[in-house]
Structures are given as structure tokens and as C-alpha cells.
Amino acid sequence: MVDFLGWPLVRQLTGADRLGRGAAAQSPRSRDLEPRTRSADRVVDSVCPFCAVGCGQKVFVKDGRVVQIEGNPASPISRGRLCPKGSASKQLVTSPTRVTTVRYRRPHGTEWEDLDLDTAVDMIADRVIATRRQFWRWEDEQGRRTRHTTGFASLGGATLDNEENYLMKKLYTALGAIQIENQARI
Amino acid sequence: MDLQNADCILIEGSNMAEAHPVGFQWVMEAKKRGATVIHVDPRFTRTSAVADLHVPIRAGSDIAFLGGLVNHVLSNDLDFREYVVAYTNAANIITEDFADTEDLEGLFSGWDPETKRYDPVSWHYEPPARMSDDDVANIEDVQDGEPVSHEAAQSDTHGSGGSPLPWKGRRDETLQHPRCVFQILKRHFARYTPHMVEETCGIPASEFAKVADALVANSGRERTTAFCYAVGWTHHSTGAQMIRTSAILQTLLGNIGRPGGGILALRGHASIQGSTDIPTLFNILPGYIPMPLAPLHQSLDAWVEDDEGKAGFWGNIRSYSVSLLKAYWGDAATAENDFCFDYLPRLTGDHSTYATVKSMIDGGCKGYFIVGENPAVGSANGKMQRLGMANLDWLVVRDLQMIESATFWKDGPEIETGELVTEEIGTEVFFLPAATHVEKSGSFTQTQRMLQWRDKAVEPPGDCRSELQFYVDLGNRIREKLADSTDEMDAPVLELAWDYPVDETGEPDGESVLREVNGTGPDGAVSSYLDLKPDGSTACGCWIYAGVYADEVNQARRRKPHWEQDQVAAEWGWVWPANRRILYNRASAAPDGTPWSERKKYVWWDPEQGRWVGKDVPDFVPDRAPDHTPAPDAHGPDAIGGQDPFVMQTDGKAWLFAPLGVADGPLPAHYEPAESPVANPLYPVQSNPGRRSLKTPSNPINPSRSEVFPYVFTTYRLTEHHTAGGMSRTLPYLTELQPEPFCEVSPRLARERGLVHGEWATIISARTAIEARVLVTDRLRSLRLGDRFVEQVGLPYHWGGNGLSTGDSANDLVNVTMDPNVFIQDKVGTCDVQPGRRPRGPALVEYVAQYRRRAGVPEEGDL
């Protein structure tokens, strides 16, 4: 049995919504939709990861997954607003093209290969030790102590946390590595 | 937020509405309250659209424009005289040996044509009439000592203030002495007339007058003007001096240290400020402590000698440095072993990123970590970057997505042209996936020095890890592998304080790292840098961040809503130093300590309490009376006078004239970019004489005034994309909003070259040629310079070969010629534009080579 009275046109002609822009046009599905922000299990305070304005974010989490990221109205910097990038930041987490496994390209290789994370970090540690030693310099041309290596360099930091930058500089400095740079130079 | 208190806002070198849209709401708030908004920019953008005045300018000519404003203020006596006399070095007398660009045809005294460097000894203050013992010793130092080195970017390593000055110097507060800074400034800027501004910048005198009148009308006791800039100033071979010119202007107008004033750097990454304060930079250690230099610093004493005891808070350098060494090497650092000073590597010159890339090309650097950055797209001269990476033994890339810097060996532009062949590239590449900002907890420092903590929301997927975890793990493994070593070179690694407990997922506790950064002493977390000691009893990872963990509480995590606080909102996050929101805010009060005006009241002296009070944490010694005169032998903070608001400067004054610390002159002078279509209208010297060139075959320079490369290009950002695109070209939403690269050209240029709106164009420099869709628009105005026009091409720089939206990289066009203070490149250059797509494959190489031959660029590059 078809419920003719439920048809949008009938509702538009018989109800208060004569222009068909509101209740008359609403389907049961759209009526029952609720924002993902309402069904979230948890809301976590965060900060936008793009530019340096530092807009406040609210991260909505359901079943251990990020379902939405919105501006934080309480922030005196941003008062709840986000720009297109900040508004899209959920996709940084959920992007289908995001790489979630280690990829390895051997010297002269033509394709990526898989590699275990533990093995990868161990191989990197070996290479740091070897290259550091290969390019180690105790003294400059005039015999002044340098205690440094120019064998390896590091680039990046402005997209990372303060704590991460701190440990990077600390470890590199202890290793005698000096070519440590980030986006502030470019 | 304080921008809303400005009566006038001048935005130059920034497209704030599009690049920092949410921050821009405070400009609009100010406008709603009646502020005048001025936008000076080569392009008419959404910032210009809501400004009261848009002034088109030729890219790279900002010093000429700002210098014109300085001249306008000085020659019409429009400066805020009381502020200038009391708070700046306008009254200081400079030595007789100083000679200006007016005397030396575009150079300052001290220039060595052999080394192409300045010796600043002749820029010094005249010693005081009555000299203390310190002054006598200092004079000997200056006369005998080596000139300050700029080899290792030492200009920006002198704390958050200026470089150490030997003495406060003689002053003439009538500002009449012919050798006082005020008079030198007047003479120096006299040639920056409105006519000269028109000839240099393409700004008509009538437009210039409107800007000058607005700035002057909105400065003084009752009103303040704020400046905003971004990489439109920093990315020039004269970048540091562009910012200095604005600082001179704002200081003359009395707009520093006051609400609604200041010069705001609009920075482009979430924690680019934090990664400068706690640097991943070659020339500094945390808190702007300089990395030691091999020729000068072979002991702790020698390292701190220049700064120690000088007036101001920077004079406590030994406490900050020893505390840092304690944070690094813990119990191993003792007074007997100079607190492990010797474990610090010493610099021997320029180890900045571009010099390092050249070293890679030359085979001197074989390993590379790239961590959340994409130099193949984001750095100048992408080809140089990729040639460097192709010559490594190993490369580690940590990112969220497969960025161009990780795949250059497979599908980079040089693979297409045949300049590189995959099978011949020996670089071993590790791509390690990273955690996003919601998959780890930690703090960012935003552009106004505010730290804000993020809580972790979810676990990272698969092999994705935080950098915190990666570096702790890497450090642990290296230490294990070296554990049995007795080699002296391994001692700093083995004795490093590197005990970071991890949770069940292997993640270290970020708050414990923040606490180490804050600093600790016998009573736990320190609450301020004043708690730090030179005897090894305190440890502190970054002295300017001391207080972020005061009372054992993560102050950066504070989130009191703005509606429950006053406008300063001191209980949201934490701002370095000492949660102070406006720096040098002592200057918001008159010399006698009373507010300059009721309207601009901010921090003032309360004689009853005997303290500085107000809306913000006073940036001053809390109980130092306005009439205090320090004893002649006072040191450090004790030597700050009651009327010396610039407490990080060794003389407490704002430097209109820099007697020390700037590589390319004590005053700004306009020089043309390394590639320019015109001769320098101001001086016979064409380009910054101290500029750093990078000579390698992949970095050829277009000759200036070349008919082959007649146009100016400049790069910029779009709202919908972020820097080199790794975080935006990979997101469907943003890609849909801004799907492909384009070039903006004026209707006149389009006619001249037959460019059709919506069709393709090829843009050519001596480095390479790129293609983009043509956008013909009045937003780019043809600028009239005297009897000729200059055309500018606007290029968004976000694209590369990977991601959902792809295209040629504008940065492949950019040459590497650097500012001598900070080693940052010019982002402007010259080019040709032709209709149609660029040649493919090896034909592209030949096409660009032909251009070089026609322009007379040496075939082997600028060697």
C-alpha cells in the first residue's frame, strides 16, 4: 500500500511548507540523520597542524576512529573557526592514500619493497653509525678541535612537536651531526 | 589577538586573508572598530579586497618603499620624539670612522672586496666619556678581537635580542650631534624620496602619500599601528634588512611594546616558531644559544664570554648554557669537565641546508633524514635538491604520504628528461610512515610564541609512529650498538641523558620531555629562567621555555575559554617568555612609568606597590623603578635602567642603527634581487654586496636586465594548499577546491606574449622551464617604472608530481642566492613566458640550454 499522503508534493500542497523547502521535502532518512559530532564517544582537544596561527580543534572519536574535526569555540585565537585546510584535517588521518607501512628502495632498485619496521630502524641505526664515522672530523685545517661529522644531515621540524624537535637536536648534537635544518631556513 | 587593538594595520609581504585566514579575523575586528587597513603587495588578493588601500609594488623593492616612509617621518619631524629619545639608540654617537652608503657609493665602511664581508668595527658607539673598568677592557677587546663571524649565521644567535655590545656609549639627547644615530639616519634615508619610490617600486607619489599619512595619523600617544609580514619579506637576499627597515619605522613611530602595535611575523607551519626556539637549525642550540665555533669557542668560558655579564637578561648566558649542558649530559656534566662543553660539536662555517645540498652533490654528505618536509618541491631550485638526494648512500623520509622527496629516483622530473636514470641512482631509501597530529600528544608553538598542548585522540595505524618514538628508539639502538666502545668520539652518545621510559605501544611520555625542556632544580620543575644557576644545580632544555611546566603543571595544556577571561587571555596555553603576551611592554608606558594614554594603557608603574602592573606580565624587572640608574659596574639584569625597555638588548634600547650583529650593514639599503629586470635606481651597487651565492652547475643565475628574461616572477600560497603540498594535494577536499597549478599574468603581458586565459603557458628561467594554466587578470597590475613597464608573473608553488593533484613545481624556477645574515634565498627572479606547454623529455633540457646561451649564462653554470 503506497502512502500517497506522505508524498512530498502532497505534503507541500496540504501543509504549511508551500514552497517545498523545509518539512514538505524532508525524507525520513534526512530527518533521522544526526551529526557525527553528536554520536562521538570522546572529544579530544587539539590544535590545527597546518599554519602557525594555532587554531583550536576538537577531535571527535568514535570506536577508536576519528569521525570529525571541528574548530574549538573556546580558543581565544580562533574562536571556533577553521580555514579550508583545518576543516579538511580529518582527511590527514583517514586519507586512502596515506602510507601506513614501511617502504624500502634498495640501491639501484626500480621498485619499492616491503620491510619490517624493526629491521628498518635497526638498518638506519647501522648507517648512522657508519656514515658518522666515515666523515668524522676531530680538527679543522688549523688544528682547532671540531668534534663533528658532516656525513649526514637532517631536514624538517616545523611540522613536528616541540618535544620531538628537542630530542632530534639533542641526539644529533651528541652524535656530532651539525647539518640540522628545518623549514625556517626556506 | 592583540591586532584588534590597532588603529592602522599595514600588511606587506603577506597575503594574510588567504594564507592565515583565521588569524585575519583580528584584522577585520580592528577594521570594524575603525582601523585603516593597508595592503602593499604585487598582487591584488582577498587581503587587498577588504583593505582600505591596496598598493601594488614591484617584488623585492620593499626596502625602497619602507625607506621612503622612514625618510618621510624623519624629514618632516613626525617621529614620536619622546619615545625615540628615551627608548632607542637615536641619541647614541657613532665613531668617527663610520662612513655611510652616501659617502661610499652604496657601501658602508668596513667593506672588504676580497672576502666580500664587512668588518663592523667602525659602526660602534663612541665610548662613554667616563669609562668604567669594563669599558676599558671592552675597548681593548674591540681593537684586538676578531671581527664577528657571519660565516655560521651568527646574526640570529644573540638571544632573542641583539648582539653583545661593549658599552652603552655616549648619547646626545638633543639629537643634534652630526654623528648621532638620528642624524645619520636622516642623511642615509634622504635619497628615499617619493620620486625614488615611484621609480623603484612603481608606486605613484599620491599612493605613497596616502600610506605615509595613515601611518603617521595612527601613531603616537593615543594611537598605534601594527605591521604584518610573512615570507614576502623573509625570502629575499635582503630579507633581514627589509624587516629591519620596518623595525626602524615602527620604532620611530613609537609602535613597539604597545597594544595594537608591533611587527607580526605570520609564520607558515604549526610549530615553525617552536622549531626555531628549540631549534632543528644548524647555527643555534635551544633558546638561541649559539652553536660553538671552532675558531673561537674551545672552552665553556670562551663560549659564553661575549655575552656574559652584559646588561640585560642575556647577560646570564652562563646559567642558561650550563643548564642546557646538564639537560643534555646529566650527571656526566660537572664543573670539573666544563659541564661537558667539549661534547658539543663545533661549527666551521656555513652548514645550512643549501650548503649541505651542494655538499651532497659534491659527495661530502652521504646520509639524510627528511622529517615532515618536502624539499624536492618546497626548497628553492628543486633540481639541485634532487641531484643532491640522488648522490646519497641513504635517505630516510618520514611523512604521512608518498611525497616527491621520497620518489625522485622513480618519477622525478630528471628521470623524465634523462638527466637521472633510476638504475644508476645508488641511494637507499627508507620511507617510514608518521603519526598525524591527533595520533600523538605534544605541543606546538604558534606564531605569537604561544605553546598549545594537544592530547592524543587515537592510536596511529600500522607502522605509523611519532617522531618522539622514532628518535628515542633510534637513540637507544645507536647507544646499544656503541655500548662497548671506548672511542672518545662515542663518549657524548654513551653519556647522553637519554632515559625516556615508554608505554606499552613504545611511545615515550611527551610531558616528561616538556618538563626537561622547562628545566628542573633541587625543588623540581623551575618556574622561570631566573631560577637557573651557573653551578650545575639546575638543568634546563630551553631557558626561554622555563615556566611552561611551573608548579609541575603542563601550562601549555591550559584551556580556559576566552569568554571567561579578559582580552589578553593569559590562561589559554602558555607564551614564552614567562607567559608574556607582548614583548618589551615596558615601552607601553612613558619614561616616568605612567601610561602613554588611557586608550593605550597596558603595563605601568604603580608607585604605591613599587611594582610594574597591568594587563600583561610586565617585560621588565618587576620592582625596577622608572627613575633607577644602574651602578656603573652593574652586570646582567642589574644593569638595566628604569627607562631601558628593550631588556634583551645589551644597552636596553631599540636599535635604529645596528652597531653590531648584521652582516650587510648597520642600516638597510635597497639592493636589487640577484635577478632583476632593472638597474638599481638608488646606488651604483646592483645587488646586495654581501649576498651568498651558491656556485654549482645546477644553479645558474639569469643576468640582470636581460632581454631574454624580461619579466619578474614571484611565488605564493593559496588558501586551499599548504607549502609543498604533502598535507594538502593528498586530501580529496582540498584537491577538489584547488585542482591545478596556474600562473597569474596581467592583460598587458598576455597581449605581449599571446597568452590565452585558461590555456597553457611555459615559464622559463636558467634553471628550468615549467608549465601552468594561464590566468589573465587585473589582479596583477603592470607597474610603471619611469619610462618603462615591469611585468610580474604570480606562481603558486604547491605542486609536484605526486598526490591527487599534480603539476610542475614553481620552486624549480627559483635560484639560490642568499641573505648573508640568515642564508635564506630570494623567492623572486626573472623569467620569460611563452604560450603553450613546455617540451617533454630531453627536449626540455635543450630548450632551457638554448635560453641560457641566448642570455649569455655560462654553459657550466655560474662558476
UniProtKB/TrEMBL annotation, chain A:
Pfam assignment, any one: Molybdop_Fe4S4
Lineage: superkingdom: Bacteria
UniProt biased composition (Basic and acidic residues): 29-38
GO cellular component terms listed in the entry, alphabetical order: cell envelope
Biological processes annotated in GO: anaerobic respiration
Cofactor section: [4Fe-4S] cluster
Gene3D superfamilies per record: 3.40.50.740, ADC-like domains
PANTHER family the record matches: FORMATE DEHYDROGENASE-O MAJOR SUBUNIT (PTHR43598:SF1), TUNGSTEN-CONTAINING FORMYLMETHANOFURAN DEHYDROGENASE 2 SUBUNIT B (PTHR43598)
Protein name per Swiss-Prot or TrEMBL: Dehydrogenase
Automatic annotation (TrEMBL), chain B:
Matching InterPro entries: Asp_de-COase-like_dom_sf, Formate_DH_Act, MoPterin_dinucl-bd_dom, Mopterin_OxRdtase
Gene3D superfamilies referenced in this protein's UniProt entry, alphabetically: 2.40.40.20, 3.40.50.740, Dimethylsulfoxide Reductase, domain 2 (3.40.228.10)
Cell compartment(s), UniProt: Cell envelope
Matching CDD domains: MopB_CT_Formate-Dh-Na-like
Sequence segments annotated as region (Disordered): 145-170, 620-643
SUPFAM superfamilies per the UniProt record, alphabetical: ADC-like, Formate dehydrogenase/DMSO reductase, domains 1-3
Keyword terms, alphabetized: 4Fe-4S, Iron, Iron-sulfur, Metal-binding, Oxidoreductase
Domain Molybdopterin oxidoreductase positions: 2-402, 432-476
A GO term for molecular function: electron transfer activity
Cofactor entry: [4Fe-4S] cluster
Pfam families given in the database record: Molybdopterin, Molydop_binding
Keyword Lipid biosynthesis: no
GO biological process, one term: anaerobic respiration
Signal peptide positions on this chain: none
Molybdopterin dinucleotide-binding domain span: 712-820
Gene Ontology CC terms, in alphabetical order: cell envelope
Family: Belongs to the prokaryotic molybdopterin-containing oxidoreductase family.
PANTHER family, per the entry: FORMATE DEHYDROGENASE-O MAJOR SUBUNIT (PTHR43598:SF1), TUNGSTEN-CONTAINING FORMYLMETHANOFURAN DEHYDROGENASE 2 SUBUNIT B (PTHR43598)
Record protein name field: Formate dehydrogenase
